Amino acid sequence: MSAAGRRLEQAHQLWHRALESYPSVDDFCLAVNNLLQTLRTVTFVLQKSLKHRDGFDAWYADRQREMNDDAVMRWAVEARNHIEKEGDLDLRSTARVSIMASWLDAPYEEFDIPPLIPPEAIAIALAPRDIPDKIRREGVFTVERRWVTASLPDHELLEACAHVYDVLRAVVLDAEATFEGAEIRVQPGEPQRKRLDCMVAGRDARTARLHLQTGDFLVHTRARMSRDPDDKERAAKHYGPALDAIPRPADSLESRVRWYHQTGRVILATDGHCITVAFVYREGRLVSRIVLSPQDQQDKYLLMEHIADEVVTLGADEVIVSAEVWMAVAREGEPLSLVRAGDREDRMEGFATNGVNRAGQALMLITPFSTAGGKTVLGEINEDRTYPNLMLPIRRAWDR
Questions:
Q1: Which residues contact 316 (CB under 8 A, 6 or more apart)?
Q2: CA 156, CA 152: separation in Å to the nearest integer?
Q3: Residues 304-332: pLDDT tens digits?
């Protein structure tokens, strides 16, 4: 590991120390001061160790311009200077509370709170009692503890520092590969991650999510589907030539959605069911597969938030989700048009493949199906290019 890489790892450890110090004003302030000062020295160490290499000055000038164009990176430099010359940052301990009861972005309230009060205690104390039955049945009450500073009021401090770390890590990895012949350090078969999993998961450590109907706290799980080299052989043996007959997709969102949907139809016709899977892409390459097993609507909300986190972690630009769904005819003006398909007596079973990308393109393919005599009967494929509500958490992640 290079000298800059070692300094970056020290910053990584300090980031976790700050997260562990979250409930204490003094400890958190000290940890953030050390973290920002260490992050600031990464580029100093990088320049000192590589300035003698041919081409480094021109290479670094380009990286420096990119960092100067980044508002959070500029803030980090100013914050470190403030700490060095003027004193501690002006910190506020806040709680952001919201109710998630639909796919739309949940409105929130944010207020000052003593840092020693954990988010679970805030959730129990503030959980709404007098709310409509639908919201109670499907809602998640979320409390996120936040440290913010007057110089960067719209960003939680550790999220901002994680962004700074991301940018510096990319610069250091690029420098090591360009001037020291180092290979990108990733596990075999795994993509280069744009943000460390532990930093993405840090938000969960300071957040409580309360199931409004049961009163239980929900856990935000993170489980990826590992690649098995024998998958293809087993699938060919189990599903026969039907899978091979599906043409390989071209390099486009629409082509991949159609391929996954046709593949899902084969699986559904053979097995009578199909698991819910999210496929995450970056620059046309599959970088993650995640199996989703929601138990209720609250689970669906949190699992799609998990996929949105994965988009941030991987710097992904395309997501496709295949799942069995409930379908119902929604006629405008009818009372039932406002009722979720899964709650209606006239519901039908369907298999849907939703695909969206960062450019705003969307495509949903849906196949109605039924079971008769132990066999699954598939209907015709219907298309819809409206942006699906299911994928709105992902669009919000891209917007952020």
A1: 280, 281, 282, 287, 288, 310
A2: 8
A3: 998 998 898 888 999 999 999 988 776 66
| Closest to 139 in 3D by CA, of 245, 214, 49, 87 | 214
Burial class (CB in 10 A: 0-12, 13-18, 19+), 225: middle
**Measured in whole angstroms, how far is the alpha carbon of residue 115 from the centre of its chain?**
26
Token pair 């996929």 in the structure block, residue: 307
| Cα–Cα separations (whole angstroms), residue 313 to 164, 307, 325 | 14, 10, 28
Q: What is the mean pLDDT of residues 343-372?
A: 92
Contact predicate 257/365, CB 8 Å: yes
Identify which of 346, 290, 351 has the alpha carbon closest to the alpha carbon of residue 316. 290
- d(CA 185, CA 191) in angstroms, rounded, equals 10
Torsion angle of alpha carbons 76, 77, 82, 85, nearest 10°? 150
Query: Residue 264: what residue type?
Result: G
Give the residue ranges of DSSP H helices in 127-214: 133-138, 157-179, 197-205
Strands 91-100 and 285-292: unpaired
pLDDT at 190: 44
Helix (H) or strand (E) holding 327: strand 318-327
Give the residue among 101, 91, 83 at the shortest CA–CA distance from 145.
91
The residue behind tokens 């043409």 is 247
| Burial readout 34-67 (b: 16 or more C-beta within 10 A, e: otherwise) | bbbebbbbbbebbeebbeeeeebeebbeebeeeb
User: Could you tell me which residues come within 8 angstroms of residue 171 by beta carbon, excluding any fewer than 6 positions away?
Assistant: 43, 46, 63, 67
- Residues 34, 37, 43, 46: is their CA dihedral positive or negative? negative
Measured from the Cβ of residue 118, the count of other Cβ atoms closer than 10 Å reads: 15
Q: Who's near 392: CB < 8 A, 6+ residues apart? A: 103, 104, 105
Mean pLDDT of 329-341: 61
Q: Strands 382-384, 362-372: parallel, antiparallel or unpaired by DSSP?
A: antiparallel
Residues 342-358 have a mean pLDDT of 88
> How far apart (Å, rounded) are the C-alpha atoms in residues 337 and 106?
22
With 50 as the cut, is the pLDDT of residue 294 above it? yes
Q: Which two tokens stand for residue 117?
A: 């009060």
134 — pLDDT class (breaks 50, 70, 90) = confident
Give the C-alpha separation, 37 to 33, whole Å: 6
